[in-house]
């Protein structure tokens, strides 16, 4: 089922035709579905390659940013990240940009891990990314790179839309109070930095029990770092606490990050309710974690 109204139909035949016409050196390699997210569909190509295709033309701009900037960022980061090997061109069968990248082995974090180490390693990656000189970068400014206030109307609409869907399983009133409180905080004084903006567990890879790679830079942008810390609410408390301790974030930054987590989670539930149940489950879990860890004072 399509996730968006303007979605392109992408199947193995489409991908193979792109390879035959543009990358004949890889055209005969085995091709198999490799999952996808809200913005892209992926196919594994042979043992060592991955084809990444935006779900629509309107969602292709971030891929162009990845193609330009990931090769420049990779040498400065402590974990593996995807690096495009080929920048695909639109065609008659697929009217958007696409990429071939090196396959990165690993699995999303789960189960019996040293979650505290993962939290520390994740912040180490974030710190390194934020420390990279933004140089003369001109990239799309995403809403998650700015302030909370411009998102207030959308956040309240998303929370309202969640109410009939989640019933009494999530304390929406509490989440709205936390959102409102964050809006009263002073504006961030942080400098603008490089941001991943979507460091949720499905975009992290673990090998040998340790965090080894960060993937899906579709939200790569420059801006204020508050929202960068929001996905730690998707992690177990041990990882979240270790991240907090390693980062040394002040209370206001942490509250703004939590507010971003609320907005992003609440937005995903109604939008993907009928089309992407797994993502809805992620969003619900995030909001439940925030609500259960917060109390009315």
UniProtKB/TrEMBL annotation:
One Pfam family from the record: APH
Keyword Kinase listed: yes
SUPFAM superfamilies for the chain: Protein kinase-like (PK-like)
One Gene Ontology term of the molecular function aspect: kinase activity
UniProt key word Transcription: no
Keywords: Kinase, Transferase
Domain Aminoglycoside phosphotransferase, residue spans: 32-260
Protein name according to UniProt: Predicted kinase, aminoglycoside phosphotransferase (APT) family
Annotated source species: Paractinoplanes atraurantiacus
């Amino acid at each position: 089922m399509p996730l968006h109204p303007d979605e392109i139909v992408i199947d193995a035949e489409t991908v193979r035709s792109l390879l035959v016409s543009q990358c004949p050196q890889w055209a005969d390699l085995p091709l198999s579905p490799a999952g996808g997210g809200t913005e892209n569909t992926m196919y594994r190509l042979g043992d060592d390659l991955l084809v990444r295709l935006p779900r629509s033309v309107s969602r292709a701009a971030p891929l162009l940013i990845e193609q330009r900037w990931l090769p420049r960022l990779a040498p400065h980061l402590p974990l593996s990240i995807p690096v495009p090997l080929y920048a695909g061109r639109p065609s008659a069968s697929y009217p958007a940009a696409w990429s071939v990248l090196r396959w990165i082995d690993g699995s999303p974090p789960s189960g019996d891990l040293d979650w505290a180490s993962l939290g520390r390693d994740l912040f180490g990656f974030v710190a390194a990314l934020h420390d990279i000189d933004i140089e003369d970068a001109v990239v799309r400014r995403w809403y998650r790179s700015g302030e909370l206030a411009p998102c207030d109307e959308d956040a309240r609409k998303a929370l309202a839309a969640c109410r009939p869907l989640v019933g009494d399983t999530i304390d929406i009133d509490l989440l709205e109070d936390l959102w409102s409180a964050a809006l009263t905080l002073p504006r961030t004084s942080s400098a603008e930095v490089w941001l991943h903006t979507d460091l949720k567990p499905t975009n992290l890879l673990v090998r040998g029990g340790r965090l080894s790679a960060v993937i899906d830079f579709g939200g790569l942008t420059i801006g204020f770092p508050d929202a960068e810390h929001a996905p730690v609410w998707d992690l177990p408390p041990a990882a979240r606490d270790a991240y907090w301790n390693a980062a040394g974030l002040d209370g206001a930054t942490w509250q703004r990050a939590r507010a971003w987590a609320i907005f992003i989670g609440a937005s995903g539930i109604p939008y993907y309710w009928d089309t992407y149940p797994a993502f809805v489950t992620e969003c619900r879990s995030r909001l439940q974690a925030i609500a259960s860890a917060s109390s009315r004072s």
